[in-house]
């Protein structure tokens, strides 16, 4: 049988809880509380000329500071917009002879972290602070755990944030309360997604949903999470990509479809990787990868402006511009520039020799595509800070991509690099079902060699292609990485509300 141990503060708060209940005060009342105004709006709009509009105000929020002056309390509450001060006077809250309710509720019952609802009128104190002259006060929720102590300036802005990653990521609900900048990051995340959605909808794209549980984990080279479908008694996989389902919809007659999807890859975790992540993919009929590069520039320009009011983004000590156009560099040229090796005509053995000379680890499961990918990732990727399209990949790296119209052995593909990391991946989509089957079979051979990231053969997708898919261009954006760039965050964990962590041992 587990027992819960409490700190001294937690014991005191539980004692207060019992005293409140004994006095007939419900610490968790059921009725709604009618909020009429919010803190920032009041501060922005209240003047002597507008004070009649604030003669009867109803606010609710979490207590962030209490200044006990005896018969007067100055309390600051935090609502969805920020902080506002309450002026709470005993004899106005409880004008009768009996002051016991003041003692039980206000004097001895309130703690930092409690939620209260108040009504009153707005005024400006002698020190010039816009405040609420409180006429009624209702306890809405009693906090049983104390908030971490942080330092704030006179405006209530935190200047001594809690930075311990273990605390921040595991208890994000508290991190959001005490660190206002964290909340702003997630507000900007939503602004960015809304901006992208507006861009796509304005172009006539259709937002769709595709399966998260899949019988074949297709559309990307990645190791999947495996689960079991009890009713069907077969294994299923959490999706690693939604590409093949979206292309089925292009076969079905939609010209432009998109999806913001949660994808899952059973791989490592680091500053830019989380096993569960958000991707935007969209597919457009009758387009190619040149059109997609221009569209990507337009989309990212708009998103940057909508989030930050400018195409510039500060990431650490770097200033990144999302203003179009972006540079275009072939992957072979990039490798030659940054390693000195021309790998364009090399066999698998020749690529292994180059890797050995560059100090890049390889193993027997790696084919030509994986070896080239390793060279680029290890020696080139980090050099591309400003948005750059790396284009024209070797066919071995791109089993779902159309052959290049002019360059033998290459495909029409680009990856967008920003701040040394891939942000988007795009193709002129392969729509030849015979060629696609051959490419899948090559992937199957790599899987037999032990490559856990090789693609499965999706026979239903091949069948769909045999009905005919028009020329199509598609792209996938890493939404979490894009949020990192537009908010200046150093880690993917900082832009996910609840990043994956090792399970916590609870008492």
UniProtKB/TrEMBL annotation:
A GO CC annotation given for this chain: cytosol
Record's cofactor remark: Binds 3 Mg(2+) ions per subunit.
Iron keyword on record: no
Residues that coordinate or bind Mg(2+) 1: 415, 422
InterPro entries in the record: Aa-tRNA-synt_II, aa-tRNA-synth_II, aa-tRNA-synth_II/BPL/LPL, Lys-tRNA-ligase_II, Lys-tRNA-ligase_II_N, Lys-tRNA-synth_II_C, NA-bd_OB-fold, NA-bd_OB_tRNA
Top-level enzyme category: ligase
Record-linked Pfam families: tRNA-synt_2 (PF00152), tRNA_anti-codon (PF01336)
Single biological process term from Gene Ontology: lysyl-tRNA aminoacylation
Molecular function as annotated in GO: ATP binding; lysine-tRNA ligase activity; magnesium ion binding; tRNA binding
Binding site residues for Mg(2+) 2: 422
Major subcellular location class: cytoplasm
Keyword entries, A-Z: Aminoacyl-tRNA synthetase, ATP-binding, Cytoplasm, Ligase, Magnesium, Metal-binding, Nucleotide-binding, Protein biosynthesis
Cofactor: Mg(2+)
Domain of life of the source: Bacteria
NCBIfam families named in the record: lysS_bact, PRK00484.1
The protein's name in its UniProt record: Lysine--tRNA ligase
Gene source species: Niabella soli DSM 19437
The gene coding this protein: lysS
